[in-house]
Amino acid sequence: MESRKEDARRMVSVTINGEMRQGLAEPRTLLAYFIRETLGLTGTHVGCDTTSCGACTVLFDGEPVKSCTVLAVQADQHQIDTVEGLETDNVLHPLQQAFWDNHGLQCGFCTPGMLMTSVALLQKNPHPTESEIRHGISGNLCRCTGYVNIVKAITDASHKMQKEPAEV
């Protein structure tokens, strides 16, 4: 007797970086892989699959989440913002520019998650202290920079964003 394997994939519809997108995902597919492999947005990096590093951080309905521990099917009908959505009309987001200006990146692997976490931080607290910034990014690991220039970049961006509001 021939066995038929039922296709367990489900259609997942998300608004990602302001655009409605759809793709098929198995129920166990992690959001990080759905974003990267199904939607083709490879800016979201996967570093650990255990929420330890934060490289895969995206904004889920405006809140930072580590997409390696969220199922794609959980994102159905929700809004997701990734690092690709920060740049507007070929102009870097103030945080991206501040990371560049203040040497807040080296290898760049942690940068997408660090940027998305920082966007959420500055939306909730436009004028964070150094201590608040360090606490805010504490779930994101950087193996290269020592965080000094990352903190400097976030501080710089917070000042610039008050003069030039930027939306995610």
The general outline is: elongated
Over all CA atoms, what is the radius of gyration? 17 Å
| Biggest sheet details | 5 strands, mixed
Class inferred from helices and paired strands = alpha+beta
> On the 0-100 scale, what is the average pLDDT?
93
Low-confidence stretches: none
The percentage of residues in β strands lies in 5-15%
By CATH reckoning, the class of the largest domain would read Alpha Beta
How many E-type strands?
A: 5
- Stated plainly, the CATH topology of the largest domain is called Ubiquitin-like (UB roll)
How many domain units? 2
Instruction: State the distance separating the first and last CA atoms.
Output: 55 Å
What does this entry look like structurally?
With 168 residues, this protein is of the alpha+beta class. 32% of the residues lie in helices and 15% in strands. It has a 5-stranded mixed sheet, sandwiched between helices. Helix 2 (94-101) crosses helix 5. The protein is elongated.
